[in-house]
Amino acid sequence: MIERHIHFLRVEQPPAAETVDGARDRLAAKFPRGALRRMTHLGLLVGSALDGLAIGLDDTVVYATTYAETRALEDYLTSFPEASPLLFQTSIHPSAVQQVLIGRQQPVRRFFPLTGRRRLVEQALLTALIDPARQVVLLGGEERGTWMLDHGMASDRAFAFALSLRAEPAGAIGRVAFAPDGTDQKTGPCPPLPDFAEALAGRREMRWRGAGGGFTLQWS
Predict the structure, then answer these.
(1) Which residues make Cβ contacts (< 8 Å) with residue 81, sequence separation at least 6?
(2) Are strands 159-166 and 135-142 parallel, antiparallel or unpaired?
(3) pLDDT tens digits for 144-190?
(4) pLDDT of res. 183
(5) What is the DSSP letter of 140?
(6) What is the pLDDT of residue 83?
(7) What is the pLDDT of residue 141?
(8) CA distance 9 to 171
(9) In this structure, what DSSP letter does residue 92 have?
(10) What pLDDT, on a 0 to 100 scale, did the predictor assign at position 85?
(11) Rounded CA gap, 149 and 191, in Å?
């Protein structure tokens, strides 16, 4: 079995109707004014989830999102034929985390942006669990789409979460683990990223049998 212990957790669950302008107003105190106007909704949510968590050069950052900067991509596509370079820049997959780290002037040696659907949570957890860094920062999130949602190409809700995962159990608030045999695990499917975020927010235990073994999320 491999495991890490949760030493920090914050989940952002904004109101369903929140716009990027609304998020800028709500979260303005957390960001430099110059950076605020260029940040996406997901960038703001990820940055808020990271508020209070220090990231060091030798830490690893793992980022999980299926759709990433949906609103920036929607706006970029509708900006043609006069395409916006700024919207293109902010619409790329790891943009939300890059916005925050650049704003902090925080380099990291290892940054793993992951995407997927059915197995995304498992991919992110395994990446975090096998990494050698003393602290692995596990991030995830989505922003709610508009017209892309009608085509099944966007999330129907906005959220973000941040976890600090370390080897030491002292002072931990929870634990994530993977058992290669998975004999004691439930046989349910890997949870979708929004369901995993809901479990984090409610500090609900999760167990499931995934690819190659069993996964556990539990709380102290």
Answers:
(1) none
(2) antiparallel
(3) 999 888 999 999 999 999 999 999 999 999 999 999 876 555 667 89
(4) 55
(5) E
(6) 82
(7) 97
(8) 13
(9) S
(10) 81
(11) 20
Helices 70-78, 41-49: axis angle to 10 degrees equals 160
Q: Report the distance separating Cα 111 and Cα 114, nearest Å.
A: 10
Contact between 139 and 166 under an 8 Å Cβ cutoff? The reply is no
Helix (H, G, I), strand (E, B) or coil at 54: coil
Count of C-beta atoms within a 10 Å radius of residue 33: 7
> Looking at residue 8, what is its pLDDT?
98
Question: What is the per-residue pLDDT for 188?
Answer: 75
Q: Which residues of the chain have pLDDT under 50?
A: none
Q: Letter for the amino acid at 220?
A: S
The SS3 of residue 76 is: helix
Distance CA 55, CA 53 (A): 6
Predicted confidence at residue 88, as pLDDT, reads: 82
Pairing status of strand 174-179 against strand 213-219: antiparallel
Neighbours of 12 (CB within 10 A): 23
Dihedral over Cα of 192, 195, 200, 201: its sign: positive
Instruction: Please name the amino acid found at residue 145.
Output: G
SS3 at position 22: helix
What's 146-199 look like in SS3?
CCCHHHCCCECCCEEEEEEEECCCCCCCEEEEEECCCCCCCCCCCCCHHHHHHH
